[in-house]
Amino acid sequence: MSETVPTTPQLTVMTVNIHKGFTSFNRKFILPELRDAVRKVGADIVFMQEVLGAHEEHGKKIEDWPDAPHYEFLADSIWPQHAYGRNMVYPKGHHGNAIMSKFPIVDYQNHDVSIIGPEKRGLLHCRLKVDGHPQDVHVICVHLGLAESHRQQQLGLLCEISHSEVPQDAPLIVAGDFNDWRRRANDILWKEAGLREIFVSAYGEPAKTFPSIFPLLSLDRIYVRNCSVHLPVVLPRRPWAHLSDHAPLAAEIHL
Q: How far from chain centre, in Å, is Cα 98?
């Protein structure tokens, strides 16, 4: 009589900066195409940055503009659970980070990590209930500032949240647009929060993601704690170089 070996739950994650549903330089609205491409990846959890929550003027001018907020349009019936963190607010609308999940979102909180100035940034933290795992899984969607001094402070706040809001032994996945072109985040997040960057662990260096048509800079990252990673990949130029100026990342996570 053979013994059955217990398997750990596994899930697929993806992160992408969707540039408010437009191609580079806002030349063309491509949100419906982008939704199709995200669906084909088949991720269980999708981390998105620069997601429009509302925009009064675009809805009047663009023919296929959805009635629902963009995160709801993207989630549709594929991801029954979603959370949105509004970061940038302007007279005609607002945008921010969003997480779409096939697992129940127990609760979520959007942390404003904006530093003095016009740039508004946030960390969207969700707690998920994953079948077959005794603990809640914590996921944080990140979009950090363009200035090095701002990013240093924001990374410090991310480390604080990873300790104050996440149990030390709980699975934690942090993903998004770190704007860390100088590659200083990895050491900080490892030393201060025990977070490992998955491409560095797998291949020795972070993935190059920007600009997507010919990636030179490693701006987008996925970090994990208390879980393992299998086959992290940069998604192919076709169709993504047309859909976003950031190449998306995806990976299989084992809890």
A: 7
Is 47 within the bounds of a domain?
yes
pLDDT tens per residue across span 102-159 = 999 999 999 999 998 888 999 999 999 999 999 999 999 999 999 999 999 999 999 9
What are the phi and psi torsion angles at 141 (to 5°)? -95, 130
CA 208 to CA 215: how far, in whole Å? Answer: 5
Quick check: pTM over 0.90? yes
Please report, for the domain that includes residue 15, its CATH number: 3.60.10.10
- Domain hosting 124: range is 10-254
Looking at the 3D structure of the chain, how many domains does it have? 1
Rounded Cα distance between 49 and 28, Å, is: 18
pLDDT, greater one: 66 or 24: 66
Span 39-62, pLDDT tens digits: 999 999 999 999 987 777 676 678
Residue 85 lies in a domain: yes
Side by side, the strands of the sheet bearing 45-55 are 81-90, 93-101, 45-55, 10-17, 249-254, 228-234
CA atoms within 13 A on the CB side of 186: 18
The C-alpha atoms of residue 255 and residue 130 are separated, in whole angstroms, by 10
Q: Which residues contact 134 (CB under 8 A, 6 or more apart)?
A: none
Question: Is 2 a member of any domain?
Answer: no
Residue 1: inside a domain: no
